[in-house]
Design brief:
This protein has about 300 residues and is an alpha/beta fold. The chain has helices at about 1-10, 20-35, 55-80, 110-115, 135-145, 175, 195-210, 220-230, 245-255, 255-260, 275-280, 295-305; strands spanning about 15-20, 40-45, 55, 80-90, 95-105, 145-155, 155-165, 190, 210-215, 235, 265, 285-290. It has 12 helices and 12 strands. The protein is elongated and about 60 Å long.
Amino acid sequence: MRNLLTFARKRQTTRGMVDVNQVVRETLALRHYEQQVNNVTTIDALAAGLPSVFADPHQLKQVLLNLIINGEQAMLAANGRGTLIVRTWYDLDADSVVIEITDDGPGVPEDVQTKIFDPFFTTKEVGKGTGLGLTVAYAIIEEHGGLLTVSSDQGATFRVALPAGTADLRPAATATTNAGNDVGAGSTALVVEDEAALGTAVAEALADVGFTVDRAGDGEEALERVKEKPYDLIICDLKMPRLDGKAFYRTIAVTHPALARRIVFVTGDVAGTDAEGFLEDSGCRWLAKPFRLRDLLAIAREVVE
């Protein structure tokens, strides 16, 4: 590890105060085309008002690219598609800025988690990688005074924690991050999504702003949910197994016409497809994947107000 630490140290020539969210956006932009081609959806939940960190933005981008590409490869190998969720927030207790990258791939076994940052350790086939990527990433973050960790529940989660530039820390940062937390207070929402990671991210974002949230994996399950209780908001994918979003909407438009106006669709490609005409005819609000969770929350506010 010492040689790798020396490598990271030698490259530290452009450190300064860095906007973490800006680095994340630039890194995601580099992967946008490849993700679109390979059917990978990225959802970002970047907290507002973060303090800057003292870092080399190029090295930080190198680390994030490594983590993102690893996640993409794991998801594509396992499922041929996937959802990547990128979050940032300020950890007040540790005075650090956290970047979290979660994929919905097969995850990292517990015995592998303890070795994954070791030099030359790899789970890839011979000829598919040197095993140095995560080791170098770990060394870079360590040299920045931070910490890179991995956990695995549903998929894999890599978390980068970097010391906040305390001189730049604004006392209002936490309040800014939590602004509007009463958007869904007293309201109920149903998230209809067959991609588990994306459904979880959307449900958690809605819960964070006060909604009581239920989940459904497809249109048929969603219809059963609607029979059981009323909802103030429904976030619904268009393409799903068994009963898709269009069929779900048409049923709701007959049985619960007032609720039909509270459906927000999320979908992939729209232009030039049947979905374009459907969305125009229905008059429903919609967001194209990938989307930002804050944009979804803005639409949710419009629906329930």
